Amino acid sequence: MEEILRVEDVSHTYQAENGEINAFEHISFTVRRGAFLSIVGPSGCGKSTLLSVIAGLMPPSGGRVLVDDVVVTGVSPHIGYMLQRDNLLEWRTILSNVLFGLEIRGAKTPQNIERAEQLLKTYGLYEFRNKYPRQLSGGMRQRAALIRTLATGPDILLLDEAFSALDYQTRLTVTDDVYRILKREGVTTLMVTHDIPESISMGDEVLILSSRPARVREVLTLDFGPERTPLSCRSDPKFTAYFDHIWKELSTDETS
Q1: Model-level pTM?
Q2: Contact status, residue 216 vs residue 28, Cβ threshold 8 Å
């Protein structure tokens, strides 16, 4: 499978009250088109900052990020970003929320509106298109936020702790739902999470970062077979072995 994203020797330093802080340094990895990469690491190691650099929201202090062999020099139209909260606008209907990203990009064309409506139909929210966010469950709100992002047609989706605000049972259902949507749409995904089981159940690979300044400890390839789902992975005998491996890597880093 061809490569869509390449992160080459990327470092990032920022100014804090007590001086310069090296968030991460010499980070290099690649992501195949259509793959799902989970990113884990100790708290404060710069995982979210790394996503911001990949998205072009802030420049790297060193190195470069390439999407389809083109260097990212600013906010890229090829990259979508979902944060921890769904950020749906409470005074807009679900359809109006879904179209909001297109409005911002000046791309609210009849063709794109039709695509957005088709996404709502495909993923079970079309009948709620005239409802307001407060009338939807947490899982449905998250699905609406995802459809809003997908409506802009990104090739790469960045998820930053996108499910952490949900209760445990809803989270399990939503991750299964979101995974199915992303695989069906063929969107390459990078997900930052502090939840090791979540990283394993959703990822084709897990990028394990060290403590700050973060470096790549390992890129772990997961093998659950072609028919995998996040829920089925959790009952697979390999799941515990992967968990123990990642836990050991993170624990070793914290005690070293």
Answers
A1: 0.88
A2: yes
